[in-house]
Sequence to fold (373 residues):
Amino acid sequence: MRLPEFTLERFFARWEFAAELLLCASDVEGLSVRDLLDLADEDSRHRWDDLRLGYTESAGDPALRAEIARLYEHAQADDVLVFAGAEEAVFALNNVLLGSGDHAVVVRPAYQSLAEVARAAGAEVARVELRPADGWRLDTAEVGAALRPNTRLILVNEPHNPTGSLSDRATFDRLVGLAAESGARLVVDEVYRFLEFDPADRLPAGADALETAVSIGVMSKSFGLAGLRIGWIATRDRGLLTRLAAFKDYTTICNSAPSEVLALIALRARDRVLARNRGIVLGNLPLLDEFFSRWAGVFEWVRPRGGSIGFPRLVADVPIDRFAEGLVRETGVLLLPGTVFADTSNRFRIGFGRTNMSAALERLETYAERTLR
Ligand SMILES: Cc1ncc(COP(=O)(O)O)c(C=O)c1O
Fold:
């Protein structure tokens, strides 16, 4: 299997821990272990204190799987398989579902692995474009037009990285209808689920919408616990889960024992964890709205509807790679150039899940005053 370089991850490998302030992180600010343990109920506190650091159950700790299943309407613990982050889930899923002669439909732009692993597994990948003029909304007519008799998989990401877009319910229902009629498996990357700005906009989970559909979830983004490296696949298709479990024997075998317990604690306290994280995101958003209205004509902003990231455009005649490089070198503030998503329209990803966002935004503004006005 040959995989091309993961451009975004290589960019972060260079800058994430060298830059002083991240203004493009995709996750919400991580909780400390101390703060997380303060949220533990009695049972999970015992699990933590008495934890033995041996191998764990390869499908995931049963209590954790049960807690993850509670995030869905129709899932039980046995409908959940735990992975090392969403990334391992994406890798396993594409390898199990796709091979040469198969076809997959994936939105663009997208987190690179969503399309690249499918391609490396041998499938032909058709991209359905999300466009700023449509508010980055998914056009299900384009999904329908991309389908072929050998389409095995339709992969979308709701809320979406990097644009923060979120389909409306009617669009999502049409998508589910297309998957059901065509027999292509619907996979919904839901790593930003629960960060919809208006909870009324939250879509049904893929795994709830259709028996064969797949939800990909993770502790990294909405739950602010990326360092746990705990993600999962939820689906009512038990046959698929059996195949995925067999694949996982060749990747991580089982999950990190401490991470499983910490994830359990966070999920049992999810109302408090999500309230904290939604508070950070919703507190930062108005600052971005004000910034982009002050800079209208220089930056173009399509306001996201969920998640902790957006994908504005630098309208001024300065290449975004050059602008971002100057910004980080001179001010320590990191933006993510859209070129890592193969975007050619001078966009960049901005992240608003960090508590120091206003400080980063101030430095961006000072730098923009100096270089763009
Ligand atoms: C849409 C999407 N899917 C999957 C992943 C992988 O998540 P993780 O790093 O938690 O494995 C990411 C990470 O940025 C993402 O944005």
Observations:
- The chain has 14 helices and 14 strands.
- Residues 26, 85-87, 90, 111, 157, 161, 189, 191, 218, 220, 226, 231 surround pyridoxal-5'-phosphate (CB under 6 Å).
- The chain has a mean pLDDT of 97.
- The CA atoms of residues 37 and 45 lie 7 Å apart.
